[in-house]
Design goal:
single chain, 280 residues, alpha/beta, Spore Coat Polysaccharide Biosynthesis Protein SpsA, Chain A, nine-stranded mixed beta sheet, two-stranded antiparallel ribbon, 13 strands, 34% helix, globular, binds 1-O-phosphono-alpha-D-glucopyranose
Length: 280
């Protein structure tokens, strides 16, 4: 089955980015000149997705408005309008948010029995020859039997305790176990879930039964682990590209620099400023 639909959870409070996120969604913070959420939607559309459900929450009105097609003379907005014409975007509010798994569960009717891509709304990829989500879709669409695909990145043991950890069978990419935010002593892999997934429709019935984790959330990772318990397959894919997280102020600053410096003229300016700061 083709992957046509994507779910983008964007209901997080962004507390680590306060005060910038006091009244505006963290997904609307600009990376140089473009809100993070626009970069994520662009990745989905360039991956062939034609229907997107964005899960929103408190203070997300500006996010919804950002996806209106408007009359404009601005070249960049005209380009964005063209992209928006290729996709049907709807929004669903996650009232009483209880974590990522709970956000995804709100998309059950949207998925309507189809496999869905999931793109976390607060990180994005640079330097991808093929968009990150398209890499996962290509694997999914070439499988003999439907499965779930989880995008991964290689992380150090310390960083792994803040992510979902994936353990694969031997040298293969078949997932044997998947654990959310393991204790440092139980980290036995360097593969971390990197915010991009293709989920089989069975994920929703699993998430309905997942109970709260120790941090009081319904974890998507626990739903994925329950797929494995039912012998439903999950494969990992090391995403080819640079993952940019926008979780805290320092990461946000670095994200801006990396993205802006893709433009050679901006890169020159930035290097000039940094050099003169170093000289002072
Ligand atoms: C979520 C997922 C985690 C994944 C991470 C990627 O965690 O639960 O498995 O590794 O996103 O950023 P969060 O960052 O929301 O705590």
């Amino acid at each position: 089955m083709k992957v046509r639909k994507a779910i983008i959870p964007a209901a997080g409070q962004g507390t680590r980015l306060l005060p910038a996120t006091k009244t505006q969604p963290k997904e609307m913070l600009p990376i140089y000149d473009t809100p993070v959420i626009q970069l994520v939607v662009e990745e989905a559309v360039k991956s062939g997705i034609t229907e997107i459900l964005i899960i929103t929450g408190e203070n997300k009105h500006s996010l919804e408005k950002h996806f209106d097609i408007i009359n404009t003379e601005n070249g960049k907005l005209k380009e964005f309008n063209k992209l928006l014409e290729k996709v049907d975007i709807t929004f669903k509010r996650q009232s009483n948010p209880r974590g990522l798994g709970d956000a995804i569960l709100r998309a059950k009717n949207f998925a309507h029995g189809e496999p869905c891509a999931i793109l976390l709304g607060d990180d994005f990829y640079l330097n991808c020859e093929t968009p990150a989500t398209k890499q996962l879709i290509d694997i999914y669409e070439n499988l003999e039997y439907p499965a779930t695909i989880v995008g991964v990145e290689i992380l150090s043991k310390e960083k792994m305790t803040k992510k979902g950890m994936v353990i694969v069978k031997g040298e293969s990419n078949e997932v044997e176990n998947i654990i959310e935010k393991p204790n440092i002593d139980s980290v036995v892999s360097d593969l971390a879930i990197s915010g991009r997934y293709i989920v089989a429709p069975e994920i929703f019935e699993k998430l309905e039964k997942v109970t709260e984790s120790s941090r009081g959330e319904i974890e998507l990772t626990d739903g994925l682990a329950d797929l494995l318990k039912d012998n439903l397959k999950i494969y990992s894919h090391l995403i080819n590209g640079t993952r940019i997280d926008v979780g805290n102020p320092t990461e946000y600053l670095i994200a801006n620099l990396k993205y802006a410096m893709l433009d050679e003229s901006v890169k020159k300016e930035v290097i000039k400023v940094i050099k003169s700061e170093l000289d002072n």
